[in-house]
Design goal:
The complex is a heterodimer. Chain A is of the alpha+beta class. Chain A has helices at about 5-15, 20-25, 45-65, 70-80, 85-105, 115-140, 145-160, 180-185, 190-205, and strands spanning about 25-30, 35-40, 165-170, 175. Chain A has a four-stranded antiparallel sheet. In chain A, strand 1 and strand 2 form a beta hairpin. In chain A, helix 3 packs antiparallel against helix 7 and helix 5 (about 85-105) packs antiparallel against helix 6. Chain A is flat. By secondary structure, chain B is mainly α. Helix content of chain B is about 70%, strand content about 0%. The chains are: A alpha+beta, B mainly alpha. The interface between A and B is medium-sized, with 31 and 33 residues.
Chain lengths: ~210, ~130
């Protein structure tokens, strides 16, 4: 996806979310292209179907040539590219420990020590940003692993049937945004990405 | 940019939600959410912050810890910092309590031992010069 498109999607995701609708029920509303959409929590049956789909994808990828598990990819990256995933994990853990130490120092500051408080908050931001960069770097290296591919497909599959479009506002009538997963995959608009982001927010609160 | 978590925290601090939260614990029929089951991740996160701020507001009112002030609760960084400090402190107190209990038990066992001595044992020592 192009950067400009990606930023537009991010902006869409960040818009108009400061309201009680976030938690009033297990659905999350959003606007796209003049229409109102919502993502909802999957029920038990849908969860089971999505898990089954993920497992099938995983087994299918496992049987293909040139596919790698996270463990195999980690080994290959180290041997062929000198990229050490375990070292990245250690760096991230070290930064996490450093952040905790700064937080513990911050906790002991009195309200009057404003300058010191602000300095510590900046330190926390810097350390968190460094840690995030490492985590994203690691995630990027491991994207081709079949576990991650299967997991990505699981979320895409889930958002294909958990996204609904408002058809009749007066009577509160909603219908599925895509009739099936194929229609979702064939949709070239930004809607599938936005729905995926909203579903992740709804399911995991992040 | 305000993160989702910041929004949930702001709502959780709000007296309206705090009151509903406290009342819903005691009065059947007062609900926080339209759904009773299949809570979303956002709702679970919101409940976590509701209960956390409920505890912190109570501790603030009872002056539980001198490091906790209303200025701390208005600042997310400082609240997070205080929560980490609080966890460490509770962990330390819990370990200390366990250690004290263990020592008290050992001391009690020793005293019990003196009251009810066990079997006598003897050992032969040869003190003759070689």
């Amino acid at each position: 996806m192009e950067d400009a498109n990606f930023n537009e999607i991010l902006n869409e995701l960040q818009k108009d979310t400061l309201n009680s609708e976030l938690i009033s029920d297990n659905k999350l509303h959003f606007n796209y292209d003049g229409c109102i959409y919502r993502v909802r929590m999957p029920n038990q049956k849908e969860n089971a179907i999505a898990n089954n789909y993920k497992n099938n994808i995983f087994v299918k990828l496992l049987q293909q040539d040139n596919t790698l598990t996270i463990k195999q990819l980690t080994k290959l990256l180290k041997e062929k590219q000198d990229i050490d995933i375990e070292a990245l994990e250690k760096q991230a853990k070290k930064l996490e420990d450093e952040v905790i130490q700064v937080y513990l120092t911050l906790a002991k500051k009195k309200d009057s020590e404003q300058k010191s408080i602000e300095d510590l908050k900046k330190q926390i931001d810097i350390l968190r940003q460094k840690r995030l960069t490492i985590i994203l770097e690691k995630a990027e290296y491991l994207t081709p692993a079949i576990e991650n591919q299967a997991q990505d497909d699981y979320y895409r599959f889930m958002s294909s049937f958990c996204t609904e479009k408002l058809i009749d506002k007066d009577n509160d009538v909603w219908e599925k945004a895509w009739k099936d997963f194929s229609a979702y995959e064939e949709d070239n608009s930004k809607l599938p990405y936005i729905a995926l982001g909203k579903l992740t927010e709804l399911m995991y609160g992040v | 940019m305000i993160t989702l978590d910041s929004q949930l925290r702001k709502m959780a601090q709000n007296s309206y939600y705090q009151n509903i939260y406290k009342t819903s614990e005691k009065c059947y029929g007062i609900k926080l959410f339209a759904n009773d089951t299949n809570l979303s991740g956002l709702q679970v996160r919101f409940l976590y912050w509701l209960s956390t701020y409920d505890v912190l507001f109570t501790e603030l009112a009872t002056h539980e810890d001198e490091l906790l002030s209303s200025a701390v609760l208005e600042d997310e960084y400082r609240t997070d910092a205080y929560l980490m400090y609080r966890n460490k402190k509770q962990d330390y107190l819990w370990r200390k309590h366990r250690q004290d209990e263990k020592e008290a038990q050992q001391s009690a066992n020793r005293k019990k031992g003196f009251k009810n001595p066990g079997k006598e044992s003897t050992i032969n020592v040869d003190l003759r010069r070689e």
